[in-house]
Amino acid sequence: MHAEIIAVGTEMLLGEIVDTNSKYISEGLADLGIDVYYHSLVGDNETRMEEVISLAAARSDLVILSGGLGPTPDDLTKQVVARFLQRKLVVDQVALRKISAFFEARKRTMTPNNKVQAMYIDGAVSLPNEVGLAVGNFYHSDQGADFLLLPGPPHEMETMFDQTAKPLLASQYQRSQILSTRLLRFYGIGESNLVTKLADLIDEQVNPTIAPYAKETEVTLRLTATGQTEAENQQLLDDLEEKISARVGRYLYGYGENNSLPAVVVEKLKQRGLTISAAESLTGGSFQAAVTAIPGASAVFPGGFVTYAAKQKEQMLGIDADLIERYGVVSEQTARAMAERTLALTDTDLALSFTGVAGPEELEGHPAGTVWIGLAGKQIPTSARLYSFQYDRSRVRNSAVMTGFSQLYQALAQIDFKR
């Protein structure tokens, strides 16, 4: 079973928006054991859409299109697919009533073109849109490719795909064996280095399989096992994870799609009843923003400091002006002092500090990307580590923040914090 994904929208061809739907759908199909062989992107043009759809149907078992289900003249997806299948469009009355109620509640007139959003291909399954108006379509063919039509707005597409389309595909393409996946998340190691350390496991893989994915600040491994029972699959995954952890376990911090490094760190702090604060210079409060973005962060984070200028490091943190004058803002001594003073002022269990050069210009003779991250704690000695990030300004700041979380995670994993 293999699939092809077609993103529809001229705005993506113009570079006005990025196609994130195809990535999301591919990851979901991988969970179902459906291989994706092709991604295509086509504008809102009937002739070119017909060409892409015809090619996809000839070479793939399942063709998934996202976008072009709205009420405007350039929303043509269901019309073009219906014509290709030689089927007519019919109205989903439940969806039509929902659209009518939407306009009535807002005291607006519903125009005839809005009815298009409630239409689906005759013979297809109409997929409800829980967070929007345009219904989806799933058309199963006994002779050719199957078609799945999803809305373009990512929030609508993701909700429809997860709640309705994915379970439908799972039942439609039920496998004789059970498929199980596990996502391992790594920080502090690049994709090439990770793959090199696991080269023989990847080269020899049969069941389970290993698929690496590089993201902006981390690397993930998706492990996939097939077997007769879930218990059999979990044992296969456990055995493979044990082999992986023996080589690169120090970089493994979490599991799953949404289990980010900041979320893992905050949860570990909560479990141990510990608190954290920070003083930030080049990162401008981004670390503290990432902490407070996690639900329940108030239990571990009382507050912190943004001391962008040297004078604020002196006034807000009470760092000796002579120390900054002697060693500079971008130094181990300043990073250590920032962490220690933050710890004393906030009375938290741990404190991080960030000082360095985001760029693009040099500072104090240090090139852009030079970053010192300090860590102080009531039960650990103060330390500061030097990093060199070879990126643009935004990525230097982001990398510094994530490295701060990594430094904190390693400290929590290695040291027994008991009150």
UniProtKB/TrEMBL annotation:
Listed Pfam families: CinA (PF02464), CinA_KH (PF18146), MoCF_biosynth (PF00994)
- Per its UniProt entry, which superkingdom is the organism in? Bacteria
| MoaB/Mog domain sequence ranges | 4-171
Q: SUPFAM superfamilies recorded for this chain?
A: CinA-like, Molybdenum cofactor biosynthesis proteins
CDD domains, A to Z: cinA
Q: Where are the transmembrane segments?
A: none
Family label: Belongs to the CinA family.
Name of the molecule in the record: Putative competence-damage inducible protein
Q: Which organism is it from?
A: Ligilactobacillus salitolerans
